[in-house]
Design brief:
The structure is a single chain. A six-stranded mixed β-sheet has the order 5-4-3-2-1-12. Helix content is 44%, strand content 16%. Strand 10 and strand 11 form a beta hairpin. It contains 16 helices and twelve strands.
Length: 514
């Protein structure tokens, strides 16, 4: 049992180190191996407990920042998410002694992906710190996401872990024939890298758009204090004027809930934003809470687009709300969590429409004899807060015509932690999956530009710091109207893994040892 505990701790630590805060992403390629040895030969329930503990340690080490919202909520989430580790270990231990090594080489990654897929959807879903996300800055590896999503990268990592595990196990037992496991894993990684290098060499062409992102760095303690309302507005106005004076900008983006009040029902706030848009003669996308005056106690977390002449063009109400942040799930049972929250938990209503914003971009041309002005219609969609963690939701916007995506967020809740960088990992995968730009505007960071290949090409920063600094960044993006396999068909690969895992579990004849 002591050896199992050491292996569990080692596996959890290696996994934690592969994520932001440490960024040793290469460790993920063998981080699961100790866990596989820890559960090997154990009865399913024992394996469940051992793996559940590994999951608890891993999630405590990665999503610890939820404690800044609510300690009970964080513990509930950690204990729940760790169950998926427990289920994985239970099934692995049961089948490892009954199935052939070649069967386990495929079953183990398929089972892992199936469980990641379920936890990303069940009870609202929490597709955070997926195994594949650890590779978000390993550009050649993540290019397969336009075919298989982040789950494809998770599968590849688990193939490597399983192949090394099988090789070590056979070597310990002096068995022959283990080399092909590694060869199979190396071959799959080689194919992924070859595809990745090919995709990285692609050149994207199209209309260029200059975008400014504003990072206000408003402390959470000030954000909804009426005494600081004027200070907040002036900061955003000042940064916007500075950004517009630096270059001819086509679109200015403010973060989530950057407007300190219910924008459409508070005329002074609405007037300030409209006046600023007319002053700089540029469209402005702002995040703000909004109140539906026709329905009692109905509030939305919204994004609103204003034209350069001050007109309100359109708005988007957030579809996927944050549990324990914007609402309390299963309120009848979990209402006690509100008593332990450091800040009041919102009571927002979810939106229903996949809004695609549209605005006109002006371009002037001149030659020796003639000058003319061209107006081009640009379509984009906005993801609010952690909506970028839901790939199926994101691809719906692209399918509806968005040629680039915006993510506005406020990660100030989580302080100086790895939360903002973990959040950005999701945006990186959404960019690659759909081969579209993702522009992030975050209250305290990370505000950045991510291109179609998943590269962070520019970011707000000062003295090497991207978080908890105020400022702006202006960057030019290339608009493309690409439709990838993933955009069109979604998580086909994850469904294949899910079905394959079920067939493997319930069909006792597949890859059975003789």
């Amino acid at each position: 049992m002591i050896n199992s505990m050491a292996l569990v701790i080692l596996s959890a630590v290696l996994l934690i180190l592969s994520f932001p805060g440490f960024d040793f992403e290469f460790l993920a390629w063998f981080a699961i191996i100790p866990l596989l040895f820890a559960v090997e030969g154990k009865k399913p329930f024992q394996a469940f407990l051992v793996s559940w503990l590994a999951g608890i340690l891993f999630f405590l080490g990665t999503i610890y920042w939820l404690v800044h919202v609510t300690l009970p909520g964080m513990l509930i989430v950690v204990l729940y998410l760790a169950l998926y580790f427990g289920i994985f270990g239970s099934f692995f231990s049961y089948h490892a002694v009954r199935r052939t090594p070649y069967g386990m080489l495929f079953f183990t990654p398929a089972l892992w992906v199936a469980l990641e897929f379920v936890r990303s959807h069940l009870f609202g879903g929490f597709g955070w710190v997926l195994l594949g996300h650890s590779q978000s800055y390993s550009l050649p590896i993540i290019q397969i996401a336009d075919l298989a999503g982040a789950y494809g990268v998770s599968f590849l990592i688990m193939v490597a872990n399983t192949a090394i595990f099988l090789t070590i196990r056979d070597f310990r037992h002096r068995r022959d024939g283990s080399f092909p496991y590694l060869m199979a894993a190396v071959f799959l990684v080689f194919l992924a890298l070859t595809y990745g290098i090919f995709r990285l060499n692609n050149v994207f062409t199209g209309q260029r758009l200059r975008v400014a992102v504003i990072q206000g760095n408003i402390p959470q303690s000030k954000k909804w204090d009426s005494d600081f309302r004027e200070e907040i507005l002036r900061k955003y106005e000042s940064l916007t004027r500075q950004a517009s004076a630096k270059a001819q900008v086509d679109l200015v983006i403010w973060p989530e809930t950057s407007v300190p009040g219910y924008i459409e029902s508070e005329r002074d706030l609405l007037g300030r934003v409209k006046s600023l848009a007319r002053e700089i003669k540029m469209p402005i996308l702002v995040g703000a809470p909004d109140e539906d005056l026709s329905l009692k106690d109905t509030y939305y977390n919204s994004a609103l687009l204003f034209a350069g002449d001050g007109r309100l063009l359109d708005r988007y109400d957030k579809i996927h709300l944050v549990p324990f942040g914007e609402y309390v799930p299963f309120r009848n049972v979990l209402s006690f969590v509100e008593r332990f929250a450091r800040s009041p938990i919102g009571d927002f209503t979810a939106g229903k429409d996949y809004a695609v914003f549209s605005f006109s971009m002006a371009r002037s041309f001149k030659d020796e004899n003639t000058s003319w002005r061209l107006l081009k219609n640009v379509r984009f969609s906005c993801l609010i807060c952690f909506e970028d963690a839901f790939p199926d939701l994101v691809r719906q916007f692209v399918k509806k015509g968005a040629v680039f995506l915006v993510n506005i967020t406020n990660d100030a809740w989580f302080g100086h932690t790895s939360a903002a960088y973990q959040h950005a990992q999701s945006s990186v995968f959404r960019a690659v999956e759909n081969r579209t730009n993702v522009v992030r505007a975050a209250n305290t960071g990370l505000s950045c530009f991510i291109d179609q290949k998943g590269r962070i090409t520019a970011a707000v920063g000062r003295n090497g710091n991207n978080l908890f600094v105020d400022g702006f960044a202006v960057h030019e993006i290339i608009l493309t109207n690409t439709r990838t396999f993933y955009t069109i068909y979604g998580d086909v690969f994850a469904y294949i893994c899910f079905i394959s895992a079920l067939l493997f579990i319930f069909n006792k004849k597949i890859f059975t040892k003789t």
